[in-house]
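Table S2 (text version). Query chain:
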Amino acid sequence: MDFASFFANYGLIILLVVLLVFMFWSSRRRMQKQKLEQEAKARETVPGSEVLLQGGVYGTIVEYDAENLDEPAHVEIAPGTIIRVHSQAILRVVNPVTGIVTEDEFIDAEASEEGYIEGVADGEITSISDDQKRASAEKKDNPEV
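Corresponding structure-token output:
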């Protein structure tokens, strides 16, 4: 049996198998990429983040449960106006909040320091924004830090 007769008999089957394998591989790769993008969006979707909703409305996340996507997200679209939207209605995060400590991270840090965080026990730190202002002021005073 020579190559030409083998290809004439089995060429179409081989081609179909190769196409099926390629389709399966590319579909799986696309699904993995989408999953990574969804996980990244879920990490960025925290209270205080500015988001764009499916309808073209911009707002700020007030409450969002990344673990239970059936729960509605609470989005503030104007000062004092909070709407509830399905978590999948959030198209993308426009301005992600950086430097925010999640509750789990805070509990872990608190446990590792045996319940004592410097400044909190003495009432020095009143909020995250005050702490950030103090840090930026110290940075301006001492640019080498």
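Notes on Table S2: The radius of gyration is 26 Å. The beta strands are 50-53, 58-63, 73-78, 81-85, 90-95.
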